[in-house]
Amino acid sequence: MKPKLIQIFLLISLAFNLGFIVMFIYSSMCKPPKFMPPSPTPKQKNERIQKITKNEEIFQLRKANLELRKSFFSELASTEPDMDKIAELIEELEKSQMDLEKQVLQHFIKIRSDLNDDEAVQFFNRFQNMYSEKNTKKIHKQNSPLNTDSKQK
Questions:
Q1: What is the pTM of this model?
Q2: pLDDT of residue 116
């Protein structure tokens, strides 16, 4: 009885092994149909989005804005700050910030025309999530180091 049971077990095992070998050979020989182009890999999608989002003009505006901020704070940190110069720097900072915001928003519009619908949803959902009600509540709850009204333990 035992030898017969072992033979049945070996035959079942042989059938499974042959089945796996046949499926492996079949799947390696059969290629997918060529009527659809391969979808881009996540790395290719990320490279494309980075290529679209790079803008030298925005980079230069950000750099200029940063330099104005450094000047503003260095003037405030001086022992005798020149209030006329500070007022002038404030006006320059406001103009620089407005130019930067305008350029960024125009660039977003340009980006949208270069993206397909799925990419646009993926790209712009990140910004929608940043401005969601949950995140704005989180920002309001954060304790600022400049907030003197917050309870300190």
A1: 0.52
A2: 81
